[in-house]
Task: inverse folding
C-alpha cells in the first residue's frame, strides 16, 4: 500500500511510471529497515510468533491512518505509461499490454529471487538462517544483518508490487489487507519455507480465483479457503512444506 | 592459549557455571568430562558466546571473548561443533560447508576436506538430513575446519554413534591435532576422551574439581570415576 502511494506521488512529480517503479521500492525498503531495527528486532529473543503478528498488524493500522492524513481517503488513480497502453494479440485473443507487462515482470522477479537464493553466497546464508539462525551465527555470520537484508528485500518487493498494482486497481486504503490474506493462503498452500511451493501456490490460487468466480460465482469469496482447507487435509504441511 | 578464569553463567535463575577455571595449551586437546547436567555444554556455549557469562573471563591468545557476539568470536578463530551436530537439514553437504567458508585462502579447501572425509565425498550433493549420524558428525567437523580455526570446540561428538564410527572419530581428532589446532572436547565416552586427550578436566556442579595430564588421570581413573563420575 505504501509502495502504491509513494509510487503515485513519484509518478505525479516526475511524470515517469518507471522512475516510480525504481524509487518507491527503495523508499519502502528503507522504511522496512527502520521498522525492523526499531520494533521487530527487540522481539527476536521471544519465542512467540504472536508478538510479531500484533506489532506488524498495529503498524498496518497506523500506516493506513498516516496514509489517510498524507494522501487523503480517496483512491488515487495511476496512469498506465504510454508505451504500455493498448492491446496485443495473444493466440488470436486481444490482451491488454499492461497485463502482459505484469506477467513478464512477475516471471522475471520470481526467477531473480530464485537465482539469488540458490546461486549467491548471501542466498545460501539466508537459507541457512531460515533453518538454524543460532548455528549460522556461531559459524561466523552476523545474523542480524541477514535478517535486516531479508526484511528490506521483502519490503522492497512489496513496494514494487504496490506500484505495479496501482494502475490496475488504483492506490486505495485497505489494498494491503486484501493482498495479505491472499499471500497468507498462498504460503499455507505452498508450504512454509518453500520457494517453489509459493510459486505453485500463487498460480493455483490465481487460477482457482478466476475460474471459480466465472463458473461458481456464489462461492467466489470462499473458494480459495476451500482450496486451502482441502490441501491442509491432504497435506498438513502444504504442497511442498514439511509437516512440523 | 585458551584461558577460562572464574566463569559464572546463568540460565534464567539457574546458576550453572559457578567459577570455572581452565587452561588449554596451544596445539593440545583438553577434555572436559562430568555427569549429565553439570555444565559442560554451557562451558562450551559460553566460549562461543551462545551463553552469556555473567562474570569471569575467557581469553584466546590474550584476546577477551566475553561480551563478544558469536560471529565475532568465530572470526577470532573459534569453530564450534555442537552437540547433536546441528547440520542444516535442507542444504547439501557442500552448501553446509560453504556456510562457514568466510576465508577464500583457508588452508582447508573443500577438496582437502573431502579427501579427509571420503564418506562425505560420495554424498556431496545429498542434503544434510539424508546423512547418517556418523556422516553428519564428519560434516560438522568439516564445516568447522573450513573456518581455519585456532580452536575447535567439540561438544559430545560421539553421542549416538556406533562404536566403529567412534573409532574413526578418534582417528580424525588425532589427525586434527597433528595440524596444530587446539581442541576443547566435551565427552561422555571416557574411552574416546582418554584416547585423544592431553589434559583431563572433571566438572561437578559447575566447577572444575580435578584436572591433570591424561597419563596422571589414567593412573587414578578408577578413583576419580568413583568419586566424581558415577551416580
Result:
Amino acid at each position: 500500500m505504501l509502495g502504491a502511494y509513494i509510487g503515485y506521488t513519484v509518478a505525479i512529480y516526475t511524470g515517469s511510471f518507471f522512475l516510480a517503479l525504481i524509487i518507491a521500492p527503495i523508499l519502502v525498503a528503507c522504511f522496512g529497515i527502520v521498522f525492523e531495527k526499531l520494533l521487530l528486532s527487540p522481539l527476536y529473543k521471544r519465542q512467540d510468533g504472536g508478538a510479531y503478528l500484533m506489532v506488524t498488524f498495529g503498524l498496518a493500522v497506523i500506516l493506513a491512518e498516516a496514509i489517510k492524513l498524507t494522501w487523503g481517503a480517496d483512491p488515487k488513480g495511476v496512469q498506465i505509461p504510454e508505451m504500455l497502453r493498448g492491446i496485443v494479440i495473444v493466440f488470436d485473443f486481444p490482451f491488454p499490454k499492461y497485463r502482459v507487462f505484469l506477467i513478464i515482470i512477475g516471471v522475471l522477479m520470481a526467477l531473480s529471487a530464485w537465482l539469488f537464493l540458490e546461486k549467491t553466497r548471501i542466498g545460501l546464508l539466508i537459507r541457512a538462517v531460515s533453518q538454524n539462525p543460532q548455528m549460522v551465527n556461531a559459524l561466523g555470520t552476523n545474523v542480524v544483518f541477514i535478517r535486516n537484508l531479508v526484511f528490506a528485500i521483502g519490503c522492497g518487493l512489496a513496494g514494487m508490487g504496490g506500484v505495479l498494482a496501482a494502475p490496475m486497481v488504483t492506490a486505495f486504503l485497505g489494498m494491503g489487507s486484501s493482498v495479505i490474506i491472499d499471500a497468507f493462503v498462498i504460503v499455507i498452500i505452498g508450504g512454509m519455507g518453500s520457494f517453489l511451493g509459493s510459486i505453485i501456490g500463487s498460480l493455483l490460487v490465481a487460477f482457482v480465483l478466476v475460474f471459480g468466480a466465472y463458473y461458481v460465482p456464489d462461492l467466489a469469496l470462499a473458494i480459495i479457503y476451500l482450496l486451502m482447507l482441502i490441501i491442509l487435509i491432504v497435506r498438513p504441511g502444504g504442497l511442498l512444506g514439511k509437516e512440523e | 592459549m585458551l584461558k577460562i578464569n572464574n566463569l559464572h553463567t546463568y540460565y534464567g535463575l539457574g546458576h550453572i557455571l559457578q567459577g570455572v577455571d581452565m587452561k588449554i595449551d596451544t596445539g593440545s586437546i583438553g577434555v572436559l568430562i562430568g555427569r549429565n547436567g553439570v555444565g559442560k555444554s554451557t562451558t562450551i556455549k559460553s566460549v562461543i558466546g551462545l551463553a552469556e557469562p555473567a562474570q569471569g573471563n575467557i581469553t584466546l591468545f590474550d584476546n577477551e571473548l566475553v561480551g563478544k557476539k558469536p560471529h565475532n568470536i568465530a572470526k577470532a578463530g573459534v569453530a564450534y561443533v555442537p552437540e547433536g551436530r546441528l547440520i542444516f537439514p535442507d542444504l547439501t553437504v557442500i552448501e553446509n560447508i560453504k556456510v562457514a567458508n568466510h576465508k577464500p585462502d583457508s588452508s582447508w579447501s573443500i577438496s582437502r576436506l573431502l579427501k579427509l572425509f571420503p564418506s562425505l565425498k560420495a554424498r556431496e550433493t545429498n542434503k544434510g538430513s539424508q546423512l547418517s549420524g556418523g556422516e553428519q558428525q564428519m560434516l560438522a567437523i568439516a564445516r568447522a575446519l573450513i573456518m581455519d580455526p585456532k580452536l575447535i570446540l567439540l561438544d559430545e561428538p560421539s553421542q549416538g554413534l556406533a562404536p566403529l564410527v567412534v573409532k574413526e572419530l578418534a582417528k580424525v581428532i588425532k589427525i586434527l591435532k597433528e595440524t596444530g589446532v587446539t581442541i576443547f572436547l566435551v565427552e561422555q565416552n571416557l574411552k574416546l576422551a582418554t584416547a585423544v586427550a592431553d589434559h583431563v578436566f572433571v566438572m561437578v556442579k559447575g566447577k572444575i574439581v580435578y584436572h591433570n595430564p591424561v597419563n596422571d588421570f589414567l593412573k587414578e581413573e578408577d578413583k576419580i570415576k568413583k568419586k566424581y563420575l558415577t551416580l
User: Anything to note?
Assistant: The interface with chain B takes residues 121, 124-125, 127-128, 131-132, 134-143 of chain A (CB under 8 Å). Chain A has two domains: 2-171, 174-244. The mean pLDDT of chain A is 90. The two ends of chain A are 33 Å apart (CA to CA).
